[in-house]
Amino acid sequence: MVSYSPLTAELKAIIADGLSPDSSIVDRGNLVEYSSDASTLSYLPELVVLAGNTDDIKSLIELANRYNFPVTPRGGGSGLAGGCLPSRGGVVLSTMGLDRIERIDTGNFIMKVGAGVISLKVREAAEAAGLFYPPDPAGMDQSTIGGNGATDAGGHPA
Question: Where's the FAD-binding PCMH-type domain (predicted)?
Fold first, then answer.
């Protein structure tokens, strides 16, 4: 099993310095909100980063590699598998701030969206553009497109 470094006050400051003003950090009192999902599992993170852009995610992952701390990505927290829970401690990386639908290309059937876009919003945007988004994960009004991809959630196969 891999051994990780704990997040010291100095390391938390380094993480904060590496983030843009678009991102923020949750520390201490509000960590419980990020310690569980829809399952019965619970693991308290040492720190939560609310990513505001992909550059902040890149910076956080580079710091994690340099300082040897775990990063657990988290979308809407609606999963039942515990995949968004920090079982090894470290940082929970919330992608909920990456909630923009950037582009819909109807000619190529492509939609470029942030990982934090709610799945139902993807379906509604596709429909408004004359397209159909067929996946139907449970909790479509809560689950994010990033979480669906990370956990292979898409509803019952046909």
Answer: 41-158
